[in-house]
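Q: I have 482 residues here and want to know how they pack in 3D. Can you give me a structure?
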Amino acid sequence: MMAKKILLLAAACVVAFAANAAEYVTEIPVLKGEKWWGLDYLGRLEQPLQGGPSGRVVNSSSENYKSVMVSNAGRYIYSENPINVIFDNEKFTITSNDEKIEVQKGGKTLREAYVVCALKNFTLGQSPDPDMFALPMYETQHEFGYALDEETIVGYAEKLLAEGFPAGIMVVADGWQKVSGPYEFDPELYPDPKRMVDRLHTLGFKVMLTVTPFVPMWGKVYAEAKRNNQIHSDVVGFSRAVLDIGDATQFERLKTGVDKIKAEYGFDGFCFDGGRADSENFINNMMSLRDDMTFVLYKDAPDMPYAPYMGNRTGGISEIITAGLMGYPYIQASSYHMDAQGPRKMADYLLLQCGMPVVSIDFAPWNITDPKLYQGVKDALNFRASIGDYMRKLVLDSRRTGEPLARHMEYQFPNSSFFDCTDQFMLGPKYLFAPCVDGADKRMVRFPKGTWIGRGGEKIKGPVVKQVDCSGGGLICFELAK
């Protein structure tokens, strides 16, 4: 009798274990003409999602971000957890270890599907300060590296204005702190940080300070953290360690340092770099630093849909607009040393930036040595600054709706055969950007219905496809007439 009870108990345990380990499988037939976007914004999947003879397997279990798919038939899929997907061009087979995935109806278009998904699932009502989208952001890391000090930063701002560029946001790069303590200014490089900030404010700039959880692999701070198991990781090649901000002691050191800097020196905000980690406490503590400020940028932000911050995203236009469809409305592209690739590529990069939600200028524009290209970039950046109020309104609207700022053409103009258009995009509902990013002298632009006004005043009646000249490096941007 006892043996029988043991066998029954063992069988029950096996059944319970199997139930806990069960996979939930959902098959979603694709409707006629339906296209889907999402799952990945890093360019590893063709968008809209493509199948093949054996299907395409998408495994997002190694990623931090949640699972978002939206279709131009007004349907969407959302899960708080990673999912596996196989697509055979006729149906999606979705497997989840956590829940039964259900397809939801949000309307009839891609935009309607996204907005309903955002309103039901994303955290709305938050965004960085609208000025971060209205003003160009001048990064200093790539241009100056660690050869950066107080006078160099002020001199850079003064030269930008003298050369005819608009004032914007000056981002003071990492390297400002003393070796012995990562949250105190080096007095030789920055003898008077408040004076520096005040001078930049007088010139019309806002000022952000880059803060990282890094510490050199020597000295008292490192030794104590190592002894107390408060090092997240050692970066041997760079002779530095990442402090474990998930630890209460190290987080308190970081927060105290940030609060002190904010109170004493008048910085408008902070750029937090090096914030990616596999520790939930690390991520949550880093993200909590934004709670009492809106002028904040996360350069290596955790992948959380509809995050109220921006992070660097690599890749081209397709990746940017796909990220927008996955709940990243505030996107920022990065150059990664464009200065080593010649004047035309540098100019193309800055012209692309003019259509981004955040205009990130990673190098001094006068590194573009071709006079015509240089003037084109200058004109483009001043144009972008001139639509600052438009950008501010876009951001405020996005806080309510969750809509992306850089938009897929299919998103803004449904049922107009733009589902495969990945080399041009809309900045909000009004401006069509068609950058030349490959050094070509000409490119084709697909115009939706309406009257479109070019930068030179020319009017184009859509729908139509026209070839435009971009040999001079000018901004290819058209405004939809009222």
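Q: Anything worth noting?
A: Residues 368 and 375 are 9 Å apart (CA to CA). The longest strand covers residues 442-453.
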